[in-house]
Amino acid sequence: MDLPEGLKEKRGDILRVAASHGARDVRIFGSLARNIAGPTSDIDVLVALAPGRSRLDMIAIKQDLEDLLSCEVDVVTEAALSPYIRERVPRQAVGL
Question: How far apart are CA 92 and CA 13, in angstroms?
């Protein structure tokens, strides 16, 4: 799956935002990764947090990405995923 052009253009900015809050391995999942996103779809972002980082960093990433992308963003780690989707999401996620 190719990333939408808007995300490709902002890839560097997205990665900088994530890194500034201790996140790496930034991936997109959900409807956008499955190529079924609609005009009101949010962007689901999967990240790995560096040791010592907290939920506050996740909130900051979410807020900064929403400001950057002008849409709703959900940010999660693999550990925070529901057990029902924990195996599937990382396989379907698209790396930035």
Answer: 23
